[in-house]
Amino acid sequence: xxxxxxxxxxxxxNKILLHRPGFELDRITxxxxxxxxxxxxxxxxxxxxxxxxxxKVLKETGTEVLFVTDCxxxxxxxxxxxxxxxxxxxxxxxxxxxxxxxxxxxFLLSLDNKELIRCIIAGLSESEVKSSRVTLSxxxxxxxxxxxxxxxxxxxxxxxxxxxxxxxxxxxxKTPIRRRESLIVRLIYKYHPDFSGVPVYFDxxxxxxxxxxxxxxxxxxxxxxxxxxxxxxxxxxxxxxxNLLNSNSGxxxxxxxxxxxxxxxxxxxxxxxxxxYDKFVIFPNILNDIEVITITSGGKSTLKxxxxxxxxxxxxxxxxxxxxxxIKSGGSSSVxxxxxxxxxxxxxxxxxxxxxxxxxxxxxxxxILDRNxxxxxxxxxxxxxxxxxxxxxxxxPLVREDIDF
Length: 405
Fold this sequence. Notes:
The chain has about 400 residues and is α/β, with parallel strands linked by helices. The chain contains 13 helices and 19 strands.
């Protein structure tokens, strides 16, 4: 049995990787908001309760839930080299002299493993490492409160990596503040026994072009969608498409989907997700702006491109269906659609065909899904949504049951 198996967006979800929000959220200040991609200061204790509710629904529906910190702890408890690599990926961000960096390395390696993981995720402040002040510059140069900063977006697990078939694409994040997140996940895939040895279809340590997991949807065993968005580059799409199409992945077609490059639509899954065999939920205000290009192998590691008439016909053709249904979030009101899309009405997580997890605050969109035969399991997300992401953004599915179209 494969360690990983994702051949669709809607097959019954059996195993998933999450990150429970932690102390890193309590270190966000108003001055940090733009850099860390939040629109407001989150209430961390409430956010954790909401996330626990999300995990509870997953478990109650039969999904095995793994957590990043547990996986990382298992890795560094059993592998000293992995622990050293974890320390180094944080030290790469330190803007101090080598003497200070060496002192920080010694300090971090001396920590209990649980405390080390907390530091790597929550950041390391100068006040926590008094002993590293060993040169005059440590005392007198302009300072930032942290040697390396908190990474509060880590709970958006879909962004940093996506399982495709029996392998993984490890994201190269667009914004520098998020790159440590994806490197932490890379370390887990490299060393954890549940994941090590799986095919890597995009390696964030080697590639320089941006590619983020929120732009990747696994439509079927043979077709993957990749969004050309604010966060994923054309070069990243070409690279992942080439790696999938010119390997033994089984993928035969990639649909590149261009969406408006705006903050509200930072990834494809913020405006479009799959909810059933032939049904998709979409933010209707962007329908006229979408462009779709089908990419196939041209042989000898080359690619062929073909423009599609529109998204709906491209999806039907890719799934070998006579037609598909695009369910408009927010209904006929452009105002309601815009308000609820901002709160991730289209960012649904399917846990089986026709069954999805959504935020309960998007009442109109949830009602529309219900009227279209989709069972909605809604969760509280008033604090979770402050980072601009929904149930799909918060999850990295690892294993789904195969389905046939």
